[in-house]
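Q: Could you fold this chain for me?
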Amino acid sequence: MFTTLLNHLKTIRQSRRLWIIGGGIATILVIYGLSQAFHLTHLAADPRSRHFITWGTGNEASRAALITEQRERCPGAPFILPADGYIGLFYADPRAPYSTSNRHQGIDIFSPGEPGTTPIYAAYDGYVTREETWRSSLIIRVPEDPFDPTRQIWLYYTHMADKSGTADFISEAFPPGTREFFVEQGTLLGYTGNFSGNPLREVWVHLHFSVVLDDGNGFYTNELEFDNTIDPSRYLGMAVNYACAESVPACTLSPLCEEAILGAGGG
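A: Sure. Below is the predicted structure, expressed as structure tokens.
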């Protein structure tokens, strides 16, 4: 009888403990869900998100109003903008398909024309490499970072092919396997495309451009990791960090703001 009573009390304590733990987990999930809902609502209210919708659904005139055209270097900046177009996703952008825990590693410049028609240029002097397996990408080695000559950096370009990846829009000067081909700033590299690497994932015609850190042994690091990249704002002389950017970025002498989120490479 006494043993039965002890077992009954033990069962009650265990049930109560499980109820408390379960309630705590449920509370955490509710708080997380509310915070995510608030975050998504905040992002949706961002006027730059509305402009993104305009780009996808608007007419020619409304899209033209969103385009940044800048073929010359901005005052005090070493790079040129590698392509004209609508800068729709910024550096450190948390909007889909990215998030606050997986921010955008560069900038996306969307093109008004069809795939293979909007030119892409070398943002700075350097040495082009195109790996044998790369269907839509190039990377340029810059031996001396213009803001920090003690380090080497890389400029990564991608989506330069059609949706299927069977036709690339990279200049014939850079076939697969190209290594250390010197180009001057402004050299034509190819044209924007809509290749995503995944036939089930549709992307608009655009260039993804990022500034990538060297691994310390003369090779580029993995561009997909945010901390391996550098905010291109100062290099372009434009506010293209999500925290700082206007809807249509233009030349500015103050391209970074205090709220800017930076990878390990800085900005």
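A (continued): The chain has two domains: 1-45, 61-236.
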